[in-house]
Amino acid sequence: MFSGIIATVGRITEINPRQDGTPTVRLTVEAGLLKLDDVAQGDSIACNGVCLTVVGQHGNAFFVDVSPETLSCTVGLAAPGPINLEKALRLADRLGGHLVSGHVDGVGEVLRFDPVGDNRLLEIRAPQALAKYIARKGSITVNGVSLTTNTVDQADFSINLIPHTLEATTLGTLHAGDKVNLEIDLIARYVERMLTPSAVD
Questions:
Q1: Which pLDDT score, from 0 to 100, does residue 86 have?
Q2: Average pLDDT, the chain
């Protein structure tokens, strides 16, 4: 589990095919300011909101394997470049954002990214299937960042990004037309299941 509070912006520096002949690729990720002294093989790190398993380390870099399935349903992992990083929560950690699983529910499209004073208005169109889970003033994860929605209109929603978020994550580099990883609030999933009679009969 994660909180959606990004620890640092790292960078994918290499993407290489696995040597065992599988279609899985291995990413080399420079960890930036993320400390790896307490990270072991098998630990989870969210990379742009995608929970990935550490399979090795070298210096200030770590390695993760990514399957074709994951690459097909997420963005930001198929090419070198900056990514948001967060280590998995410990039970004693503060939950500054909201509970995030690191399982991307869909890919959204940026409709607007407009300046509003020092802030930015971010408007995103989610896949239609996710629209019912997105609520005004509710939580949503965008590229691993825990955010609060301001307005919701069908599958479109807007978010106000403050200067700190723009500086501490990759969201400050977004443009209209960009694709982003979305994860809906876990609570919304369970509420739907409990309210669906056929799911619990």
A1: 97
A2: 94
